[in-house]
């Protein structure tokens, strides 16, 4: 997914002279093809996230569309005021490509795990928040980023994630995608949790609580009509996200239901409100947090 | 406390009529709006005066003209000084100036991009230079003659983002970018050397890769000479350290931390300040 997103920056840059890439001391060889082909629009800057966001803002003020890439925790926590003021207050078309959303960097510990990125990005006016499910959806999404006039936060997963979306789903910012028609239960997911919820729904298919999956590649703006329509069709909603239970997809859905007086029961499956305390793999930490397909299925049925 | 030595002409008497007139506009804004960062505005009057009168290629009737020079007031709290020039040049009206900070006003307590002539919304410190790096790179890529000027405070220079941006400006050899430091030696709490020393400031910026110039920031002729000779080095960004006096031109404000931010200026006091300025 990461490789696809960066390759797509290069593809977009070939089509549109406004596209520039700004990296923050990425791994050697990152996006070399673009660097070689169009060095004037390839910036590899230092470990200076605050200034890089400001620089991207300046470029965008004069007509460029900067795609800025570094690790998710650094592009959010480290330079939050620059993102808020330089990008969101000025409402500029800068794209933040955030490596390692959620528990991807499990072996590297809590400094590298982005567990509240969706919450803090979602709180900023003018910011859109996107977490696609797979590399194929990433291609469709990236192609749709060119002409959006405002900033977008793009949460990347690990890579090699199962492909669960199809070309006919297309991509429209702010539109949900029904991956599986709802049964008594409706899962609402974002990012790679789509494939886990689908797997959970397979487990549940033979029970008396079949479940569908509504994938929300865009957490903000939330596809409110899709959520409300689903809430009207199911006995229970279950949000699934690789993110703190504070402020992410589950919170967004909960806020929407509350604001509309919808009483459909909602179960929020998410990471606990604590810094990750273990290492190992993303898979391991997700299992610990109760986000394996079996645990998701069990929790959804138990509730 | 470290003593701050005033320069020899630290009263309105040492200022010419235009400099004193521009300060009366700051008094107008302060009186009309009922609040403002006075000291910071008064220390940078000559800097923005010389930029707008003699240096910047801008068009008040066409504020978004692509080939214009860009000025970012990174120390956004000095905005009354900028507003005085924007009103004087016709980007905004004198009425706008007198209504600053009131409900429905165009001008607020920090500059925002919806104001004609304002390039970036500032007020959070340490943002301007990095944005300036982006603007200067954009001008270079688009082969525009635009130059970028960033006016930064001395207290603002405490921010780490400033030094990140300085490294980047030097890396890209942005000769079309000039950092102007309004070095009035006072920040909110007190004197710069007591709160967080910056010296040797010129050496620091030189070591970061800037071409350095220094000037008396209230000496119009000196500022004209220095700004007209930019860039200092054709292969480097420039930094002009302007030695200024916080609150310059109004005796009660000078070197007075209590006038960093002033709330309420009664009409009689405003009249007295105008008298001090124009009667000087």
Outline:
The complex is a heterodimer of chains A (303) and B (280). By secondary structure, chain A is of the alpha/beta class. Chain A has helices at residues 2-15, 32-37, 49-61, 72-76, 80-89, 117-122, 135-143, 193-205, 224-233, 249-259, 282-288, 293-302; strands at residues 19-24, 42-45, 65-71, 95-99, 128-130, 152-155, 177-180, 185-189, 211-215, 218-220, 236-244, 266-271.
Q: How would you describe this structure to a colleague?
A:
The complex is a heterodimer of chains A (303) and B (280). Chain A is built from 12 helices and 12 strands. Chain A has 303 residues and is an alpha/beta fold. Chain A has a 7-stranded mixed β-sheet, with helices on both faces. In chain A, strands 7-9-8-11-12 form a 5-stranded mixed β-sheet, with helices on both faces. In chain A, strand 1 (19-24), helix 2 (32-37) and strand 2 form a beta-alpha-beta unit. In chain A, helix 1 runs parallel beside helix 7 and helix 3 runs parallel beside helix 5. Chain A is globular and about 60 Å long. The two termini of chain A are 33 Å apart. Chain B has 280 residues and is an alpha/beta fold. Chain B has one domain: Rossmann fold, CATH 3.40.50. Chain B contains 11 helices and 7 strands. In chain B, the strands form 2 sheets. In chain B, strands 2-3-4-6-5 form a 5-stranded parallel β-sheet, sandwiched between helices. In chain B, helix 10 links the parallel strand 5 and strand 6. The two termini of chain B are 31 Å apart. The chains are: A alpha/beta (303), B alpha/beta (280). The interface between A and B is medium-sized, with 27 and 27 residues.
Low-confidence stretches of chain A: none
Please count the helical segments of chain B: 11
Largest sheet of chain B: 5 strands, parallel
Q: Given the helix and strand composition of chain A, which structural class is it?
A: alpha/beta
* Major sheet summary line of chain A: 7 strands, mixed
Order of helices and strands of chain B: HEHHEHHHEHEHHEHEEH
Helix content of chain B: 25-40%
């Amino acid at each position: 997914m990461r490789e696809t997103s960066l390759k797509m920056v290069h593809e977009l840059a070939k089509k549109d002279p406004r596209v520039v890439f700004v990296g923050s001391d990425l791994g050697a060889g990152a996006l070399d093809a673009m660097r070689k082909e169009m060095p004037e629009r390839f910036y590899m800057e230092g470990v200076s996230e605050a200034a890089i966001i400001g620089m991207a803002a300046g470029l965008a003020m004069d007509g460029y569309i900067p795609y800025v890439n570094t690790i998710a925790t650094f592009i959010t926590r480290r330079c939050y005021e620059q993102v808020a003021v330089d990008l969101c207050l000025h409402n500029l078309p800068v794209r933040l490509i955030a490596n390692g959303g959620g528990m991807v960097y499990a072996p590297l510990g809590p400094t590298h795990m982005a567990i509240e990125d969706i919450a803090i990005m979602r709180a900023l006016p003018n910011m859109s928040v996107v977490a696609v499910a797979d590399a194929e959806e990433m291609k469709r999404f990236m192609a749709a980023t060119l002409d959006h006039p405002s900033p977008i936060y793009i949460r990347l997963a690990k890579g090699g994630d199962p492909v669960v979306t199809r070309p006919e789903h297309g991509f429209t910012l702010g539109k949900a995608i029904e991956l599986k028609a709802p049964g008594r239960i409706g899962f609402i997911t974002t990012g790679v949790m789509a494939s886990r919820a689908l797997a959970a729904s397979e487990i549940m298919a033979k029970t008396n609580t079949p479940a569908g999956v509504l994938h929300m590649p865009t957490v903000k703006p939330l596809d409110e009509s899709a959520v409300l329509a689903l809430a009207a069709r199911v006995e229970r909603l279950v949000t699934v996200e690789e993110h703190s239970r504070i402020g992410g997809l589950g919170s967004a859905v909960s806020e929407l239901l509350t604001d509309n007086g919808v009483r459909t029961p909602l179960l929020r499956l998410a990471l606990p409100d604590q810094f990750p305390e273990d290492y190992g793999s993303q898979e391991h930490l997700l299992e610990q947090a109760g986000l394996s397909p079996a645990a998701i299925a069990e929790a959804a049925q138990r509730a | 406390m470290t003593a701050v030595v005033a320069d020899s002409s630290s009263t309105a008497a040492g200022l010419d009529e235009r400099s004193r007139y521009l300060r009366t506009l700051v008094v107008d804004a302060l009186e009309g709006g009922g609040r403002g960062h006075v000291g910071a505005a008064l220390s940078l009057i000559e800097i923005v005066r010389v930029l707008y009168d003699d240096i910047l290629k801008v068009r008040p009737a066409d504020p978004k003209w692509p080939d214009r020079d860009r000025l970012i007031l990174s120390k956004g709290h000095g905005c009354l000084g900028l507003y005085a020039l924007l009103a004087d040049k016709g980007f905004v009206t004198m009425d706008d100036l007198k209504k600053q900070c009131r409900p429905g006003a165009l001008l607020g307590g920090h500059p925002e991009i919806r104001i004609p002539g304002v390039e970036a919304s500032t007020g959070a410190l340490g943002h301007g230079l990095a944005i300036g790096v982006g603007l200067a790179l954009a001008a270079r890529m688009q082969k525009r003659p635009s130059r970028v000027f960033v006016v930064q405070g001395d207290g603002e220079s405490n921010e780490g983002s400033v030094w990140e941006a300085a490294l980047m400006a030097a890396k890209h050899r942005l000769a079309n970018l000039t950092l102007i430091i309004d070095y009035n030696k006072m920040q909110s709490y007190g004197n710069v050397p007591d709160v967080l020393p910056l010296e040797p400031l010129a050496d620091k910026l030189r070591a970061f890769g800037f071409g350095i110039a220094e000037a008396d920031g209230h000496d119009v002729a000196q500022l004209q000479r220095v700004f007209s000779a930019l860039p200092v080095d054709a292969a480097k960004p420039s930094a002009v350290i302007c030695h200024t006096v916080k609150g310059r031109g109004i005796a009660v404000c000078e070197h007075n931390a209590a006038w960093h931010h002033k709330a309420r200026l009664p009409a009689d006091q405003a009249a007295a300040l105008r008298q001090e300025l124009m009667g000087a």
